[in-house]
Specification:
This protein is an alpha/beta fold and about 290 residues long. The protein has helices spanning about 15-20, 50-60, 80-85, 145-150, 160-165, 180-200, 240-250, 255-265, 270-275, and strands at about 5-10, 30-35, 60-65, 95-100, 105, 120, 130-135, 135-140, 145, 205-210, 230-235, 285-290. It starts with a strand and ends with a strand.
Length: about 290
């Protein structure tokens, strides 16, 4: 089985809208657009530019959604997280909903995995449709952050994030309690599957591969981007989307640091596990847009 991934080498508001349109799945009803609002700090700022995503978010009449972090910092509490979103320009383009501001709920996970439940922000259930709009970059623990990470860690409440990081062993420790590295990666895949199961055919995925640092937008002291921008990709299959994006990274002549980050964390194992669960496939056809 092969999934279709659409790709534009242009990184513009119009290109983002066009990639979305090519997916053929209309985001309708009450639409959540899951992004990372970015951790403020002395070397942050790699997150998605509100000016880039504004036209798309307003086209689908979406609310930008986030959940609180589990590691402290200004985004660990809803009111302050909302202030950060305002400072970064997101409240100027759309409503912003911190989904765990009023608690959390459990989504069922597939039996036999690490997680017995996926703990997400309670407001996630208020939405009819989910757009997983991800800034693709490296990540200090997961190797890379794309669609699967954004759907899993991104939609999880603070406790849910701890649940994933510990592979279901702890709601109080960030890592190391009962978890191996592969256990954490596999748990991300399980949580992304739970979110996908909840929305069914009311979900789609977009990756923006620009400002690509080895570090995540959750790092307020992130390393600067180390490679040239690649483009915008979209798919109804998050596994194929992340695989296509990582393949483009590997093909780039200036990607050595990002590839080392991915491989040193065994990051591709997340996609192997996601494919085993049935979240998607790693075989894809890349269709160029524009």
């Amino acid at each position: 089985m092969t999934a279709t991934v659409y790709f534009s080498s242009e990184i513009t508001p119009a290109a983002l809208v066009e990639v979305y349109r090519r997916l053929g799945r209309e985001a309708k009803g009450k639409v959540a657009v899951k992004i990372s609002t970015g951790e403020p700090g002395p070397r942050g700022g790699n997150w998605l530019d509100p000016g880039l995503i504004k036209d798309f978010v307003q086209l689908v009449d979406g609310a930008i959604v986030e959940c609180c972090t589990a590691y402290g910092g200004r985004r660990s509490e809803p009111a302050e997280h909302l202030r950060v979103a305002a400072e970064h320009g997101f409240t100027a383009i759309a409503p912003v909903d911190i989904m765990d501001a009023e608690g959390e709920v459990d989504l069922p996970t597939h039996p036999g995995g690490h997680l017995t439940r996926d703990i997400v922000g309670a407001h996630l259930l208020d939405y009819d449709f989910l757009v997983v709009l991800s800034h693709f970059k490296g990540h200090v623990m997961g190797g890379f952050g794309g669609a699967v990470k954004n759907a899993s860690i991104g939609c999880a409440s603070a406790a849910g994030k701890l649940n994933i990081h510990s592979a279901g062993a702890s709601l109080t420790a960030m890592s190391g309690e009962g978890s191996t590295q592969d256990g954490f990666l596999e748990s991300m895949a399980e949580a992304a599957m739970a979110v996908a199961d909840h929305f069914g055919d009311r979900i789609l995925y977009l990756n923006v591969a620009n400002n690509i640092s080895v570090d995540c937008d959750c790092d307020g002291n992130a390393a600067p981007p180390t490679m040239a921008d690649l483009g915008i990709l979209g798919s109804l299959d998050p596994v194929a989307l992340d695989r296509a994006t990582t393949d483009l990274v590997r093909q780039a002549p200036d990607s050595a640091e990002v590839v080392e980050r991915i491989d040193s964390r065994h990051g591709m194992h997340t996609l192997d596990q996601a494919a085993r669960l049935g979240l998607g496939v790693q075989d894809y056809e890349l269709v160029t847009v524009g």
